[in-house]
Amino acid sequence: MESVVNVIESAVIQEATKQLAALPDSDRRLVSLSDVVTYSLNRVPPMYVTSLTGWQHLQKRIQEEMGCSLENVVYWSIRNIITNERNRTRNSEPSRDLTPLPETVLAKPARALHKLSQILEEKYLEWSQVPTFT
Q1: Residue 17 DSSP SS3
Q2: C-alpha distances out from residue 26 to 17, 52, 81, Å
């Protein structure tokens, strides 16, 4: 199978990172980036591409047509997660399962880019900024 990429993933990760950084510490402790991205991605249509031209076209479309709606989706995802966490704590419910997915499941381009951005301490890293070695 050829490579396929869901273009919307990187846009959601960038928006979630930006909005989480703006939260007060008390709220930020209740939310993880992976929860926000997952919650948000389940509320937007996937946008898969297999070519550079398709990727560029959808990147442009996301920026021009979907920017505001992505901001709203991420905003409401964060609000819902915070509300759920506060309710869970208030009702003394047991913590949810935090067992991470195995690395074999996570070996995907979006995850690799996120790890690179953490290592390089570059919040809004994109694949186009990562040097290629031949």
Answers
A1: helix
A2: 16, 41, 13
pTM: 0.68
Is residue 10 within 8 Å of 129, Cβ to Cβ? no
For the chain, list the strands marked E by DSSP.
Answer: 5-6, 48-49
User: Using CA atoms, how far apart are residues 100 and 104, in angstroms rounded to an integer?
Assistant: 11
Residues 77-113 have pLDDT tens digits of: 999 998 888 777 666 666 666 677 777 766 677 777 7
Nearest to 81 by CA among 29, 121, 25: 29
- Record the tokens describing residue 17, joined without a space: 């990172």
CB 70 within 8 A of CB 12: yes
